[in-house]
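BUG: 3D viewer hangs when loading the predicted structure for this chain

Environment: internal workstation, default settings.
Expected: structure renders.
Actual: progress bar stalls at 90%.

Input used:
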Amino acid sequence: MNKLLNDFTGTVRRAVDDYDMIQAGDRVAVGVSGGKDSMLLLLALNHLRRFYPQPFELEAITIELGFEGMDFTPVRELCESLEIPYTCLKTDIKEIVFDVRQEDNPCSLCAKMRRGALNDAIRARGVTKLALGHHFDDAVETYMMSLLFEGRISCFRPVTYLDRSGVTQIRPLIYAGEQKIANVAAALHVPVVENPCPQDKASKRWEIKQLLKTMSAEYPDMKSKIFGAMQRYPLPGWEPKENWRLAK
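Structure tokens produced before the viewer hung:
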């Protein structure tokens, strides 16, 4: 198991190094939703800080959206076992988005409100970096969504400085594919909090995910080529410090 975590942490470190995500003295907060992506990211960063040449602090923050049945006790217990400070903030985001406003496209507003709540929480705690669980497949899907639905070439950046809060968002999982994350999380018995959001498999992102899955059956390396093109083009913020890399 240690070898498995070592190997996965190596993938995370490549992204951290290529995009200069963490500097000495940083206080890094992981935005933990309870899903496999953010939970495994927390484990990997905790493992990384044991030997990374630039020492940094680590903590975890959960924005509780208000869905019934979501119990974040497994997250709290994991953080306690790793001696990582954990904060769980309750919000009324679910009520506002689904019950009050009844949004036709709830994902956009929900994401905006989650970001706002996270930014307020980390600003109050003196955090300098916010680590998010967006991975390789998320990047490719976001690129394709922008291209097909908006007619533009765009994607979130591996590193984004938020001037209003003074916090930098980092995405250390961008070289890790969704299937790899799922396999490692299962092998390490990472606890997961299931998300009951009704939009989980009804969003535009889900449509793009299914499209890419269908196309990848015919062209297995298609997503890697798209990702490589994003780095070589490069999109703003996507050119690595040295040589561009492809996710494995």
